[in-house]
Write a structure and sequence with these properties.
By secondary structure, the chain is mainly α. Helix content is 77%, strand content 5%.
Length: 403
């Protein structure tokens, strides 16, 4: 039987802590009440010991497979608690097995499935929680689980394409930075004595040489400090991005990046349209479907625009007019949505729109990568050329004067 750690208060007002063996959290609360203890906190004693397993990354393929298996078990009449227990026993991923066990225990104590999913944000994102909530409310939980698995696989496929496409430009950037740092830190100081003599003889050095020597001196003396400062800035930026305001600023900035901005927007619009179409196809009311799909779009700027549009829809407007006013949905997409509303085929058309946007986004991504590769080579060439010119320019000037 599992063991639970608790913190409770006695009748005398003293706080006590300990562990107790019980079949569930509910039974633990009952046992504490029998001892005249008022529980303040009760959690599984194994939870902290296995926290590293829960936080261990669960691959999209493993998660999608387990969601599909859960849907299959439910479709064949297996109760939810038993289905989760079966999946936890046969799951090969230790972290996911522990998560499934925690979800089963939470549901046995009266927690809803979507709320149990939301307790593990490292495994189940906003999309999974929103889809499961809609499926539970609309009595299509099995289909919601399958579609969630499909969305996760599509998202992972797109992420793999982006990662693969960006590998070569990222490699060029790393090589360029490494070569530049090595030249500035280790190669340039070898010319310092020569440049000092030239400066004394000629009364000064060219501006590029002075700049290069200054950079070399700073990196040579304070390289560790500079690295620590950059690491601190990166950590502070990461903490800021994790806040709601920071995420909103990042999402707004992403949409304004040249070339990459339309790709980010296309991805968010595609995800919004696909989820909205799926929810409408399964009978979810429009306002509820808009709320879920906006939260799952992956961009908070688009989510805010959709929620503002939903307020107008609640007052009697159609979907297309307030969406068009937000300015984020492309005009061809809005034209298709308008026609679909008139013909009552909005659910099918939204999924078709998402497929078309995905194909267009993929072409834009390929074009961006093709442009990025020569740009990285050009930047590398300019930086290395600057170092060489800064090193050779004083020697050329000296040769000219001697000639």
């Amino acid at each position: 039987m599992p063991e639970f750690a608790y913190t409770a208060r006695t009748l005398a007002g003293e706080d006590v802590a300990g562990t107790i063996v019980a079949a569930s959290k509910r039974e633990t609360l009952s046992l504490l009440a029998d001892k005249s203890l008022f529980p303040l906190r009760v959690e599984s004693a194994e939870k902290k010991a296995s926290a590293w397993q829960i936080n261990k990354r669960v691959s999209a393929q493993v998660l999608a497979t387990n969601l599909n298996q859960l849907a299959d078990l439910l479709q064949n009449g297996v109760p939810l608690l038993q289905s989760l227990g079966i999946l936890a026993e046969q799951c090969t991923h230790a972290g996911l097995a522990k998560v499934l066990t925690d979800i089963r225990d939470a549901i046995s104590e009266g927690t809803a499935l979507d709320e149990a999913f939301a307790q593990h944000p490292h495994v189940f994102g906003e999309l999974a929680v929103s889809m499961v909530r809609a499926g539970s409310e609309g009595a299509f939980l099995e289909d919601a689980l399958k579609r969630t698995a499909t969305f996760i696989e599509l998202q992972e496929e797109l992420k793999s394409k982006v990662t693969g496409a960006m590998f070569y430009p990222a490699f060029l950037a790393v090589v360029g930075v490494t070569v530049t740092v090595v030249l500035v830190v280790f190669f340039v100081p070898k010319f310092a004595a020569l440049f000092e003599r030239l400066e004394q003889q000629e009364g000064g050095l060219p501006a590029p040489t002075v700049l290069l020597l200054g950079m070399s001196d700073i990196l040579g003396r304070y390289g560790v400090v500079v690295m620590a400062a950059l690491g601190g800035l990166a950590y502070a930026a990461r903490r800021a991005v994790q806040s709601e305001r920071g995420r909103l600023l990042i999402d707004r900035w992403k949409l304004k990046i040249p070339v990459a901005g339309p790709i980010f927007l296309g991805y968010a619009v595609s995800r919004f349209c696909r989820i909205l179409g799926t929810l409408l196809r399964n009978g979810v009311p429009l306002l509820r479907a808009l709320d879920i799909s906006s939260e799952s779009a992956g961009n908070r700027v688009l989510a805010q625009a959709v929620k503002q549009s939903a307020e107008n829809i609640s007052s009697g407007e159609t979907l297309s007019r307030p969406l068009a006013q937000c300015g984020l949905i492309p005009k061809p997409v809005m034209a298709m949505i308008t026609v679909a509303e008139e013909s009552n085929t909005l659910d099918d058309v939204l999924v078709t729109i998402a497929d078309g946007i995905d194909r267009k986004t993929e072409r834009q991504l390929e074009m961006m990568v093709r442009l990025l590769e020569p740009m990285m080579l050009l930047v590398m060439g300019v930086v290395i050329m600057f170092v060489l010119v800064a090193l050779l320019l004083p020697i050329f000037e000296m040769s000219t004067m001697m000639g």
